[in-house]
Amino acid sequence: MFNTEIIVKSLPMLLQASVWTVIYSLTSVAIGFCIGTLMCAAGLSASRLGRAVSAFYVSFFRGVPLLVQLLISYYCLPLIGVNVPSSVAAVGTLALCTGAYIAEILRGGFLGIPPGLIEAARMVGLSRAQILTRIEVPLAVRFTLPSLVNETTMMVKASSLISVVGVLELTRLAQNIATSTFQPLEIYLTAGAIYFVINGAITLAGEFAESRFRMEKAR
Amino acid sequence: MAERPIIDVRGVWKRFGDVEVLKGIDLAIAKSEVTCIIGPSGSGKSTLLRCIAFLEEYSEGEIYIEGELLGFSLENGKRRRVSDAEVARVRRNVGFVFQQFNLWPHMTALENVAAPLKLARGIAREDAEKRARRMLEKVGLSHRAEAYPSQLSGGQQQRVGIARALAMEPHIMLFDEPTSALDPELVGEVLQVMRDLAGEGMTMAVVTHEMGFAAQVADTVVFIDHGVIAASGSPQQVFRHEENPRLRQFLQNYFERNVFWQGSDAAPAS
């Protein structure tokens, strides 16, 4: 009944496709982190416009299902004359979506920074941008690391959705193999196991980073 | 004095909403002078210091740092807030030491001192670290360069804070209650560093409750009460001969709190 042979045969292909899953999801998180930082800074700034843009951005990308966002960008971008590979559009959409969540995560971290640390930076002549990148972001990341790791694992899983707009990654390939071999259970179990291992590695990396940061706390 | 004061505060008011914290402060500090600012809590002394650093925008009046108007530009008698970069330029020679030290917790002592040199002054890494080590040595902490702030005592953290400010080669150092957050046995090491600095001719303005330090080191003592300068002069004048009843009361409270052994035979009061 349970066909282990098909697993062994398709595993190399699935592993290859999972490389794309890792690339797409980590790239999205990296870009999303930059977007999230800017949106978070805008949301906490004195500028009315900045706060409005940030609030709209966050509410849109948190309020609309990611699948719908992907379909919108897939059908919409060609209409407005933007011709990019569907993988680029998909990664962009993932990044915008996770950026909204990361902005909200970082907001908590930013608010936890003692204002005196910023004043000290201003008094030694650091610019706004330097204060953001050298003081605020490193501290906010330390405060919010568990949530950021969590968001990254969510994005690895969410990247499976981009299979619907024709981007080849782990889930898409699993679908292809499943329909051609008529062995869906074995294939999807394998794909699931690969996702599980990827996220296990990310969680471990997060714990390693946390232990590094603990050095900075009291003995 | 013939020379223009290095810090010149003229008619400065500061309001937080309806609350008037500073009500027309005039204060001139000459080069190489040590000015200690004393007063009851809530009197506005820290606010004054923060205005001189432009960590607070003053509501009215003028503050000149080395002859340049701080934070504003005057056009046809109207004042306009200048850009942050312009503020940073005018106060580039002002160092600030905080009550809570405010070291960056994700950097070692050395990095806390070296990072501003690299970032704000564009000094190459190696040179910045060399200068940072010299500064840490100056405050007696070269052996703790690699420690994170959380691994340092309060007194050590404050000395790193002083080193960080000194590394920028300021002409003026502002101290906002630098020893108030310290355990009593750690106060001395910080005051010693400040004393050395005064001896080198640094211009200093110090908000403090350390009357002994003020009496020994200050050229001028300024007593602030309810947002105005209620008395000022040499330590002699202020501590010995001042007639102002509020100041007498303030000093009386201070001495009573600090005397624990009176007379030769009497037991300490229980």
Which terms summarize this structure?
heterodimer; A: 219 residues; mainly alpha; MetI-like fold; 8 helices; 0% strand; B: alpha/beta; four-stranded antiparallel sheet; 9 helices
How would the blueprint of this fold be written?
The complex is a heterodimer of chains A (219) and B (270).
Chain A: H1 4-44, H2 48-63, H3 66-79, H4 86-111, H5 115-123, H6 128-158, H7 170-181, H8 184-214
Chain B: E1 7-16, E2 19-29, E3 34-38, H1 45-52, E4 60-65, E5 68-69, E6 72-75, E7 78-81, H2 84-90, E8 94-97, H3 109-121, H4 125-138, H5 154-167, E9 172-176, H6 184-199, E10 203-207, H7 211-217, E11 220-225, E12 228-233, H8 235-240, H9 245-258
Parallel strand pairs in B: 3-10, 3-11, 8-9, 9-10
Antiparallel strand pairs in B: 1-2, 1-4, 4-5, 6-7, 11-12
Protein name (chain A): L-cystine transport system permease protein YecS
Family (chain A): Belongs to the binding-protein-dependent transport system permease family. HisMQ subfamily.
Organism (chain A): Starkeya nomas
- List unreliable stretches of 5+ residues of chain B: none
Distance between the termini of chain B: 50 Å
Portion of residues within helices of chain B: 25-40%
CATH class of chain A: Mainly Alpha
CATH topology of chain A: MetI-like fold
Report how far apart the termini of chain A are.
57 Å
InterPro entries (chain A): AA_ABC_transptr_permease_3TM (IPR010065), ArtM/GltK/GlnP/TcyL/YhdX-like (IPR043429), MetI-like (IPR000515), MetI-like_sf (IPR035906)
GO molecular function (chain A): transmembrane transporter activity
Keywords (chain A): Amino-acid transport, Cell membrane, Membrane, Transmembrane, Transmembrane helix, Transport
Transmembrane segments (chain A): 20-44, 56-75, 87-106, 187-209
Short characterization:
The complex is a heterodimer of chains A (219) and B (270). Chain A has 219 residues and is mostly helical.
